[in-house]
Amino acid sequence: MSSTVETLSETQVKLSIEIAFEKLQPALDKAYRQIATQVNIPGFRKGKIPRALIDQRYGRISLLQEALNEILPEVYGEALAEHDLTPLGQPEIDIAQLEDGKPVQLTATTAVVPEFSLPDFATITVDVDPVQVSEADVDARLEMLRQRFASYTELERGAATDDVVIIDLSAAKDGVEFSDSDAHGMSYRVGAGGLVDGLDAAIAGLSAGESRTFTSTLVGGVHEGETADITVTVRKVQQQVLPAVDDDFAQLVSEYDTAAEMLASLKDSLLRSGRLDQANVVRDKVLDEVIAQTPFPLPANLVDEEFEPRKQQLIGQLAQLGMSVATYLERSPEETVKDEDEFWAQFRERTERGIRAQIILDKVANARAIGVTQDDLTGLLLQKAAENGTTPEEEAKHLTEHGHMQEWLGDIRRGKAVGLIVGEATVTAGGTVLDMAHLRSDGTYEEPTADAAATAEETKQSTTTKKAATAKTGAKKTPTAAKADETEKPKAKKSTK
Q1: Are 211 and 303 within one domain?
Q2: Is 338 helix (H, G, I), strand (E, B) or coil?
Protein backbone atom coordinates (compact mmCIF):
# COMPACT_ATOMS: atom_id res chain seq x y z
CA MET A 1 0.00 0.00 0.00
CA SER A 2 1.14 3.53 -0.77
CA SER A 3 -0.47 6.83 0.16
CA THR A 4 -0.06 10.55 -0.18
CA VAL A 5 -1.74 13.35 1.75
CA GLU A 6 -3.10 16.66 0.53
CA THR A 7 -3.86 19.31 3.14
CA LEU A 8 -7.18 20.98 2.31
CA SER A 9 -7.30 23.14 5.44
CA GLU A 10 -6.00 23.19 9.02
CA THR A 11 -8.65 20.61 9.92
CA GLN A 12 -9.18 18.60 6.71
CA VAL A 13 -6.99 16.40 4.53
CA LYS A 14 -7.41 14.13 1.54
CA LEU A 15 -5.56 10.82 1.55
CA SER A 16 -4.89 9.21 -1.85
CA ILE A 17 -4.39 5.49 -1.31
CA GLU A 18 -3.28 2.77 -3.71
CA ILE A 19 -3.62 -0.89 -2.74
CA ALA A 20 -2.01 -3.75 -4.61
CA PHE A 21 -4.68 -6.16 -5.89
CA GLU A 22 -2.85 -9.01 -4.12
CA LYS A 23 -3.72 -7.41 -0.76
CA LEU A 24 -7.39 -7.59 -1.72
CA GLN A 25 -7.26 -11.29 -2.64
CA PRO A 26 -7.60 -12.85 0.88
CA ALA A 27 -10.67 -10.71 1.61
CA LEU A 28 -12.08 -11.56 -1.83
CA ASP A 29 -11.62 -15.29 -1.15
CA LYS A 30 -13.40 -14.83 2.19
CA ALA A 31 -16.33 -13.10 0.49
CA TYR A 32 -16.74 -16.01 -1.95
CA ARG A 33 -16.59 -18.57 0.89
CA GLN A 34 -19.23 -16.73 2.91
CA ILE A 35 -21.65 -16.57 -0.01
CA ALA A 36 -21.01 -20.20 -0.94
CA THR A 37 -21.93 -21.36 2.56
CA GLN A 38 -24.98 -19.13 2.93
CA VAL A 39 -26.97 -19.62 -0.29
CA ASN A 40 -28.82 -22.61 -1.72
CA ILE A 41 -28.45 -23.29 -5.46
CA PRO A 42 -30.05 -26.43 -6.88
CA GLY A 43 -27.49 -29.01 -7.94
CA PHE A 44 -24.71 -27.72 -5.65
CA ARG A 45 -23.86 -28.41 -2.03
CA LYS A 46 -23.30 -25.48 0.33
CA GLY A 47 -19.71 -24.35 0.15
CA LYS A 48 -19.17 -26.01 -3.25
CA ILE A 49 -20.75 -23.38 -5.51
CA PRO A 50 -18.45 -22.36 -8.42
CA ARG A 51 -17.21 -18.77 -8.37
CA ALA A 52 -18.44 -18.20 -11.91
CA LEU A 53 -21.98 -18.99 -10.75
CA ILE A 54 -21.62 -16.64 -7.78
CA ASP A 55 -20.36 -13.89 -10.12
CA GLN A 56 -23.32 -14.49 -12.41
CA ARG A 57 -25.82 -14.21 -9.57
CA TYR A 58 -24.27 -11.46 -7.42
CA GLY A 59 -21.91 -9.63 -9.78
CA ARG A 60 -18.14 -9.61 -9.58
CA ILE A 61 -18.05 -5.90 -8.71
CA SER A 62 -20.19 -6.40 -5.61
CA LEU A 63 -17.75 -9.01 -4.33
CA LEU A 64 -14.80 -6.72 -5.01
CA GLN A 65 -16.64 -4.00 -3.09
CA GLU A 66 -17.26 -6.40 -0.19
CA ALA A 67 -13.60 -7.35 -0.10
CA LEU A 68 -12.52 -3.71 -0.13
CA ASN A 69 -14.86 -2.91 2.74
CA GLU A 70 -13.26 -5.77 4.67
CA ILE A 71 -9.73 -4.36 4.44
CA LEU A 72 -10.60 -0.66 4.35
CA PRO A 73 -10.36 -0.01 8.13
CA GLU A 74 -6.86 -1.51 8.24
CA VAL A 75 -5.69 0.31 5.12
CA TYR A 76 -7.17 3.62 6.26
CA GLY A 77 -5.55 3.23 9.68
CA GLU A 78 -2.16 2.52 8.12
CA ALA A 79 -2.44 5.65 5.96
CA LEU A 80 -3.33 7.78 8.99
CA ALA A 81 -0.39 6.39 10.94
CA GLU A 82 1.99 6.90 8.00
CA HIS A 83 1.20 10.60 7.90
CA ASP A 84 0.83 11.04 11.69
CA LEU A 85 -2.83 12.12 11.48
CA THR A 86 -5.58 11.94 14.12
CA PRO A 87 -9.02 11.66 12.48
CA LEU A 88 -12.18 13.33 13.76
CA GLY A 89 -15.28 11.47 12.63
CA GLN A 90 -15.83 9.23 9.63
CA PRO A 91 -14.03 9.74 6.29
CA GLU A 92 -15.69 10.28 2.94
CA ILE A 93 -14.49 7.48 0.70
CA ASP A 94 -14.35 7.81 -3.11
CA ILE A 95 -13.24 4.81 -5.18
CA ALA A 96 -11.38 5.82 -8.32
CA GLN A 97 -10.44 2.32 -9.51
CA LEU A 98 -11.67 -1.13 -8.48
CA GLU A 99 -10.99 -3.66 -11.25
CA ASP A 100 -9.72 -7.21 -11.51
CA GLY A 101 -5.97 -7.48 -11.43
CA LYS A 102 -5.40 -3.73 -11.12
CA PRO A 103 -4.30 -1.72 -8.05
CA VAL A 104 -7.22 -0.33 -6.07
CA GLN A 105 -7.21 3.47 -6.05
CA LEU A 106 -9.29 5.53 -3.66
CA THR A 107 -9.33 8.78 -1.73
CA ALA A 108 -10.38 9.36 1.87
CA THR A 109 -11.32 12.91 2.83
CA THR A 110 -11.45 13.36 6.57
CA ALA A 111 -11.44 15.94 9.32
CA VAL A 112 -8.31 15.80 11.47
CA VAL A 113 -6.97 17.23 14.68
CA PRO A 114 -5.07 20.42 13.82
CA GLU A 115 -1.56 21.19 15.01
CA PHE A 116 -1.39 23.09 18.31
CA SER A 117 0.97 23.46 21.24
CA LEU A 118 0.21 22.55 24.84
CA PRO A 119 0.67 25.14 27.59
CA ASP A 120 3.12 24.68 30.44
CA PHE A 121 0.86 23.10 33.06
CA ALA A 122 3.14 24.27 35.87
CA THR A 123 2.10 27.87 35.16
CA ILE A 124 -1.60 27.15 35.67
CA THR A 125 -3.09 28.34 38.96
CA VAL A 126 -6.64 27.85 40.18
CA ASP A 127 -8.36 28.59 43.48
CA VAL A 128 -11.29 26.67 44.98
CA ASP A 129 -13.38 26.93 48.12
CA PRO A 130 -11.95 25.18 51.18
CA VAL A 131 -13.63 22.03 52.45
CA GLN A 132 -15.55 22.83 55.60
CA VAL A 133 -17.70 20.51 57.71
CA SER A 134 -20.01 22.28 60.14
CA GLU A 135 -21.93 20.88 63.08
CA ALA A 136 -25.09 21.40 61.02
CA ASP A 137 -23.64 19.10 58.33
CA VAL A 138 -22.96 16.40 60.91
CA ASP A 139 -26.44 16.85 62.40
CA ALA A 140 -28.03 16.49 58.94
CA ARG A 141 -26.14 13.23 58.28
CA LEU A 142 -27.03 12.00 61.77
CA GLU A 143 -30.70 12.81 61.14
CA MET A 144 -30.60 10.70 57.96
CA LEU A 145 -29.33 7.76 60.02
CA ARG A 146 -32.04 8.25 62.63
CA GLN A 147 -34.70 8.40 59.90
CA ARG A 148 -33.35 5.19 58.36
CA PHE A 149 -33.54 3.29 61.67
CA ALA A 150 -36.77 4.87 62.91
CA SER A 151 -39.72 2.79 64.14
CA TYR A 152 -43.40 3.49 63.48
CA THR A 153 -46.42 3.37 65.74
CA GLU A 154 -49.89 3.10 64.22
CA LEU A 155 -52.35 5.77 65.39
CA GLU A 156 -56.11 5.57 65.71
CA ARG A 157 -56.76 9.21 64.93
CA GLY A 158 -56.85 11.59 62.03
CA ALA A 159 -53.61 12.42 60.22
CA ALA A 160 -51.73 15.56 61.25
CA THR A 161 -48.58 17.35 60.14
CA ASP A 162 -45.41 15.20 60.38
CA ASP A 163 -47.39 11.96 60.59
CA VAL A 164 -46.31 9.27 58.13
CA VAL A 165 -49.29 7.95 56.20
CA ILE A 166 -49.68 5.08 53.73
CA ILE A 167 -51.96 6.29 50.94
CA ASP A 168 -53.53 5.36 47.61
CA LEU A 169 -54.04 7.98 44.92
CA SER A 170 -56.24 7.96 41.83
CA ALA A 171 -57.24 10.65 39.34
CA ALA A 172 -60.26 11.12 37.07
CA LYS A 173 -61.78 13.74 34.81
CA ASP A 174 -65.45 13.91 33.95
CA GLY A 175 -65.87 10.50 35.53
CA VAL A 176 -63.12 8.86 33.41
CA GLU A 177 -60.24 7.48 35.47
CA PHE A 178 -56.61 8.06 34.46
CA SER A 179 -55.03 4.62 34.96
CA ASP A 180 -51.49 5.97 34.53
CA SER A 181 -52.01 8.33 37.48
CA ASP A 182 -52.80 5.65 40.07
CA ALA A 183 -50.47 5.03 43.03
CA HIS A 184 -50.92 2.41 45.72
CA GLY A 185 -49.23 1.92 49.09
CA MET A 186 -47.29 5.18 48.91
CA SER A 187 -45.53 6.37 52.05
CA TYR A 188 -45.84 10.11 52.60
CA ARG A 189 -44.97 12.50 55.43
CA VAL A 190 -47.80 14.97 55.90
CA GLY A 191 -46.55 18.48 55.16
CA ALA A 192 -43.54 17.35 53.10
CA GLY A 193 -45.04 18.58 49.82
CA GLY A 194 -43.53 17.73 46.45
CA LEU A 195 -46.59 15.95 45.06
CA VAL A 196 -49.82 17.60 43.88
CA ASP A 197 -51.06 20.87 45.33
CA GLY A 198 -53.80 20.40 47.92
CA LEU A 199 -52.73 16.91 49.03
CA ASP A 200 -51.75 17.93 52.57
CA ALA A 201 -55.06 19.72 53.14
CA ALA A 202 -56.95 16.71 51.82
CA ILE A 203 -55.13 14.24 54.06
CA ALA A 204 -55.43 16.36 57.22
CA GLY A 205 -57.89 14.76 59.65
CA LEU A 206 -58.37 11.53 57.69
CA SER A 207 -58.14 8.28 59.66
CA ALA A 208 -57.23 4.85 58.29
CA GLY A 209 -59.78 3.72 55.72
CA GLU A 210 -61.11 7.20 54.97
CA SER A 211 -60.96 9.01 51.61
CA ARG A 212 -61.30 12.52 50.27
CA THR A 213 -61.52 13.93 46.73
CA PHE A 214 -60.07 17.29 45.73
CA THR A 215 -59.34 19.11 42.49
CA SER A 216 -55.75 19.84 41.44
CA THR A 217 -53.39 19.94 38.46
CA LEU A 218 -51.48 16.77 37.59
CA VAL A 219 -47.71 17.25 37.59
CA GLY A 220 -46.50 14.20 35.67
CA GLY A 221 -47.36 11.46 33.23
CA VAL A 222 -49.41 11.59 30.05
CA HIS A 223 -51.96 13.98 31.57
CA GLU A 224 -49.41 16.40 32.99
CA GLY A 225 -50.84 19.93 33.31
CA GLU A 226 -54.47 18.77 33.20
CA THR A 227 -56.94 19.56 35.98
CA ALA A 228 -58.38 16.40 37.52
CA ASP A 229 -60.39 15.11 40.48
CA ILE A 230 -57.88 13.37 42.74
CA THR A 231 -58.97 10.87 45.39
CA VAL A 232 -56.68 10.10 48.31
CA THR A 233 -57.37 7.12 50.56
CA VAL A 234 -55.46 6.76 53.83
CA ARG A 235 -54.50 3.17 54.64
CA LYS A 236 -52.41 3.82 57.76
CA VAL A 237 -51.63 6.75 60.02
CA GLN A 238 -48.30 6.36 61.78
CA GLN A 239 -46.09 8.29 64.14
CA GLN A 240 -42.38 8.08 63.48
CA VAL A 241 -40.23 7.37 66.53
CA LEU A 242 -36.58 8.34 66.10
CA PRO A 243 -33.93 6.44 68.06
CA ALA A 244 -31.92 8.26 70.72
CA VAL A 245 -28.32 9.05 69.88
CA ASP A 246 -26.46 6.91 72.40
CA ASP A 247 -23.90 4.13 72.48
CA ASP A 248 -26.52 1.50 71.61
CA PHE A 249 -27.46 3.45 68.50
CA ALA A 250 -23.78 3.83 67.55
CA GLN A 251 -23.29 0.06 67.78
CA LEU A 252 -26.43 -0.51 65.69
CA VAL A 253 -25.52 1.76 62.79
CA SER A 254 -21.72 1.71 62.77
CA GLU A 255 -18.60 -0.22 63.67
CA TYR A 256 -18.01 1.95 66.74
CA ASP A 257 -18.85 1.31 70.38
CA THR A 258 -19.65 4.86 71.46
CA ALA A 259 -21.74 7.72 70.13
CA ALA A 260 -18.72 10.03 70.33
CA GLU A 261 -16.68 7.76 68.07
CA MET A 262 -19.58 7.46 65.64
CA LEU A 263 -20.00 11.25 65.45
CA ALA A 264 -16.27 11.70 64.85
CA SER A 265 -16.47 9.12 62.06
CA LEU A 266 -19.44 10.93 60.50
CA LYS A 267 -17.47 14.17 60.48
CA ASP A 268 -14.43 12.46 58.96
CA SER A 269 -16.63 10.84 56.30
CA LEU A 270 -18.11 14.22 55.37
CA LEU A 271 -14.61 15.72 55.22
CA ARG A 272 -13.37 12.99 52.87
CA SER A 273 -16.48 13.29 50.72
CA GLY A 274 -15.96 17.05 50.59
CA ARG A 275 -12.38 16.58 49.41
CA LEU A 276 -13.55 14.35 46.56
CA ASP A 277 -16.19 16.91 45.55
CA GLN A 278 -13.51 19.58 45.75
CA ALA A 279 -11.23 17.44 43.54
CA ASN A 280 -13.94 17.34 40.86
CA VAL A 281 -14.19 21.12 40.97
CA VAL A 282 -10.39 21.36 40.73
CA ARG A 283 -10.30 19.09 37.68
CA ASP A 284 -12.99 21.14 35.93
CA LYS A 285 -11.31 24.46 36.72
CA VAL A 286 -7.85 23.28 35.69
CA LEU A 287 -9.20 21.79 32.48
CA ASP A 288 -11.12 24.99 31.72
CA GLU A 289 -7.89 26.95 32.14
CA VAL A 290 -5.99 24.55 29.86
CA ILE A 291 -8.70 24.85 27.21
CA ALA A 292 -8.60 28.65 27.48
CA GLN A 293 -4.83 28.61 26.96
CA THR A 294 -4.97 26.16 24.03
CA PRO A 295 -6.72 27.75 21.05
CA PHE A 296 -7.15 25.74 17.86
CA PRO A 297 -9.76 25.55 15.09
CA LEU A 298 -12.35 22.77 14.99
CA PRO A 299 -13.57 21.18 11.74
CA ALA A 300 -16.73 22.70 10.28
CA ASN A 301 -19.92 21.02 11.54
CA LEU A 302 -18.05 18.84 14.07
CA VAL A 303 -19.78 20.45 17.07
CA ASP A 304 -23.20 20.22 15.41
CA GLU A 305 -22.63 16.56 14.56
CA GLU A 306 -21.97 15.87 18.24
CA PHE A 307 -24.60 18.27 19.59
CA GLU A 308 -27.66 17.12 17.63
CA PRO A 309 -27.58 13.43 18.67
CA ARG A 310 -27.02 14.44 22.30
CA LYS A 311 -29.89 16.89 22.11
CA GLN A 312 -32.26 14.27 20.71
CA GLN A 313 -31.09 11.75 23.30
CA LEU A 314 -31.88 14.15 26.15
CA ILE A 315 -35.29 15.00 24.68
CA GLY A 316 -36.04 11.28 24.41
CA GLN A 317 -34.95 10.60 27.99
CA LEU A 318 -37.17 13.39 29.30
CA ALA A 319 -40.09 12.12 27.20
CA GLN A 320 -39.75 8.70 28.84
CA LEU A 321 -40.15 10.46 32.19
CA GLY A 322 -43.23 12.26 30.90
CA MET A 323 -41.52 15.64 30.77
CA SER A 324 -40.81 18.22 28.12
CA VAL A 325 -37.64 20.30 28.19
CA ALA A 326 -39.65 23.30 29.43
CA THR A 327 -41.08 21.24 32.32
CA TYR A 328 -37.64 19.91 33.20
CA LEU A 329 -36.19 23.44 33.36
CA GLU A 330 -39.09 24.62 35.48
CA ARG A 331 -38.81 21.80 38.01
CA SER A 332 -35.07 21.16 38.18
CA PRO A 333 -33.41 23.12 40.99
CA GLU A 334 -30.01 22.34 39.46
CA GLU A 335 -30.79 24.24 36.26
CA THR A 336 -30.44 27.99 36.75
CA VAL A 337 -31.44 28.67 33.13
CA LYS A 338 -35.20 28.54 32.51
CA ASP A 339 -35.30 29.63 28.86
CA GLU A 340 -35.10 26.75 26.35
CA ASP A 341 -33.04 28.62 23.77
CA GLU A 342 -30.52 29.68 26.39
CA PHE A 343 -30.43 26.15 27.79
CA TRP A 344 -29.64 24.62 24.38
CA ALA A 345 -27.03 27.32 23.75
CA GLN A 346 -25.28 26.33 26.98
CA PHE A 347 -25.69 22.65 26.11
CA ARG A 348 -23.93 23.29 22.80
CA GLU A 349 -21.13 25.15 24.57
CA ARG A 350 -20.65 22.16 26.89
CA THR A 351 -20.55 19.88 23.85
CA GLU A 352 -17.80 21.97 22.27
CA ARG A 353 -15.90 22.04 25.56
CA GLY A 354 -16.07 18.25 25.71
CA ILE A 355 -14.68 17.93 22.19
CA ARG A 356 -11.82 20.33 22.88
CA ALA A 357 -11.03 18.63 26.19
CA GLN A 358 -10.87 15.20 24.54
CA ILE A 359 -8.54 16.45 21.79
CA ILE A 360 -6.22 18.13 24.30
CA LEU A 361 -6.16 15.19 26.72
CA ASP A 362 -5.46 12.71 23.92
CA LYS A 363 -2.48 14.84 22.92
CA VAL A 364 -1.24 15.01 26.52
CA ALA A 365 -1.60 11.23 26.85
CA ASN A 366 0.44 10.70 23.68
CA ALA A 367 3.05 13.33 24.52
CA ARG A 368 3.59 11.89 28.01
CA ALA A 369 3.35 8.26 26.85
CA ILE A 370 0.50 7.53 29.27
CA GLY A 371 -0.36 3.84 29.21
CA VAL A 372 -3.13 1.66 30.61
CA THR A 373 -2.38 -1.14 33.06
CA GLN A 374 -4.48 -4.15 33.97
CA ASP A 375 -5.16 -2.50 37.33
CA ASP A 376 -6.52 0.57 35.52
CA LEU A 377 -8.93 -1.58 33.49
CA THR A 378 -9.96 -3.58 36.55
CA GLY A 379 -10.65 -0.35 38.42
CA LEU A 380 -12.86 0.89 35.56
CA LEU A 381 -14.79 -2.39 35.50
CA LEU A 382 -15.40 -2.11 39.26
CA GLN A 383 -16.49 1.51 38.87
CA LYS A 384 -18.92 0.76 36.05
CA ALA A 385 -20.31 -2.25 37.91
CA ALA A 386 -21.01 -0.05 40.95
CA GLU A 387 -22.65 2.63 38.78
CA ASN A 388 -24.82 0.18 36.82
CA GLY A 389 -25.67 -2.26 39.59
CA THR A 390 -23.94 -5.11 37.77
CA THR A 391 -20.90 -7.31 38.38
CA PRO A 392 -17.39 -6.72 36.99
CA GLU A 393 -17.78 -9.95 35.02
CA GLU A 394 -20.94 -8.63 33.34
CA GLU A 395 -19.20 -5.37 32.48
CA ALA A 396 -16.23 -7.27 31.02
CA LYS A 397 -18.63 -9.34 28.90
CA HIS A 398 -20.35 -6.16 27.70
CA LEU A 399 -16.95 -4.67 26.88
CA THR A 400 -16.01 -7.66 24.74
CA GLU A 401 -19.37 -8.17 23.01
CA HIS A 402 -19.87 -4.52 22.05
CA GLY A 403 -16.30 -3.67 21.10
CA HIS A 404 -15.85 -0.90 23.67
CA MET A 405 -12.20 -1.68 24.44
CA GLN A 406 -10.63 1.23 22.53
CA GLU A 407 -13.26 3.63 23.85
CA TRP A 408 -12.66 2.55 27.45
CA LEU A 409 -8.88 2.61 27.08
CA GLY A 410 -9.17 6.16 25.72
CA ASP A 411 -11.30 7.19 28.71
CA ILE A 412 -8.71 5.77 31.12
CA ARG A 413 -5.83 7.54 29.38
CA ARG A 414 -7.69 10.85 29.35
CA GLY A 415 -8.54 10.48 33.04
CA LYS A 416 -4.87 9.89 33.85
CA ALA A 417 -3.92 12.86 31.67
CA VAL A 418 -6.22 15.13 33.70
CA GLY A 419 -4.64 13.82 36.89
CA LEU A 420 -1.17 14.57 35.51
CA ILE A 421 -2.16 18.14 34.59
CA VAL A 422 -3.76 18.77 37.99
CA GLY A 423 -0.66 17.38 39.70
CA GLU A 424 1.57 19.89 37.88
CA ALA A 425 -0.76 22.89 38.33
CA THR A 426 -0.90 25.01 41.47
CA VAL A 427 -4.20 24.60 43.33
CA THR A 428 -5.10 26.72 46.35
CA ALA A 429 -8.04 26.82 48.73
CA GLY A 430 -8.34 29.77 51.07
CA GLY A 431 -4.69 30.63 50.54
CA THR A 432 -3.47 27.08 51.24
CA VAL A 433 -1.80 25.05 48.49
CA LEU A 434 -3.54 21.69 48.04
CA ASP A 435 -1.53 18.52 47.45
CA MET A 436 -3.87 17.09 44.80
CA ALA A 437 -1.26 14.62 43.55
CA HIS A 438 -1.51 12.62 46.79
CA LEU A 439 -5.30 12.60 47.25
CA ARG A 440 -6.55 9.02 47.39
CA SER A 441 -9.83 7.80 45.92
CA ASP A 442 -11.32 7.53 49.44
CA GLY A 443 -10.68 11.21 50.19
CA THR A 444 -7.63 10.68 52.42
CA TYR A 445 -4.16 11.97 51.63
CA GLU A 446 -1.24 9.69 50.92
CA GLU A 447 1.95 10.59 52.75
CA PRO A 448 4.59 11.43 50.11
CA THR A 449 7.86 9.53 50.33
CA ALA A 450 11.13 11.36 51.02
CA ASP A 451 12.14 11.00 47.36
CA ALA A 452 8.77 12.31 46.18
CA ALA A 453 9.00 15.27 48.55
CA ALA A 454 12.49 16.12 47.27
CA THR A 455 11.27 15.84 43.66
CA ALA A 456 8.30 18.10 44.45
CA GLU A 457 10.62 20.71 45.94
CA GLU A 458 12.87 20.59 42.87
CA THR A 459 9.81 20.93 40.61
CA LYS A 460 8.60 23.90 42.65
CA GLN A 461 11.96 25.66 42.36
CA SER A 462 12.14 24.84 38.63
CA THR A 463 8.64 26.17 38.12
CA THR A 464 9.49 29.43 39.90
CA THR A 465 12.55 29.87 37.70
CA LYS A 466 10.58 28.99 34.58
CA LYS A 467 7.84 31.50 35.41
CA ALA A 468 10.41 34.21 35.91
CA ALA A 469 12.16 33.36 32.65
CA THR A 470 8.89 33.34 30.77
CA ALA A 471 7.97 36.72 32.20
CA LYS A 472 11.29 38.18 31.05
CA THR A 473 11.58 36.64 27.61
CA GLY A 474 8.02 35.74 26.65
CA ALA A 475 9.41 32.44 25.34
CA LYS A 476 6.91 29.94 23.92
CA LYS A 477 7.09 26.19 23.59
CA THR A 478 7.21 24.57 20.18
CA PRO A 479 4.22 22.50 19.09
CA THR A 480 4.13 18.81 19.87
CA ALA A 481 2.88 16.50 17.12
CA ALA A 482 -0.39 14.71 17.96
CA LYS A 483 -0.69 10.98 17.41
CA ALA A 484 -3.81 8.85 17.11
CA ASP A 485 -4.34 6.54 20.08
CA GLU A 486 -7.19 4.77 18.37
CA THR A 487 -8.64 4.60 14.85
CA GLU A 488 -12.38 4.50 14.25
CA LYS A 489 -13.44 2.19 11.46
CA PRO A 490 -14.63 4.05 8.36
CA LYS A 491 -18.20 3.17 7.48
CA ALA A 492 -18.45 4.83 4.08
CA LYS A 493 -19.28 2.56 1.18
CA LYS A 494 -19.20 4.02 -2.29
CA SER A 495 -19.77 2.30 -5.59
CA THR A 496 -17.05 2.26 -8.24
CA LYS A 497 -16.94 5.33 -10.43
Answers
A1: no
A2: coil
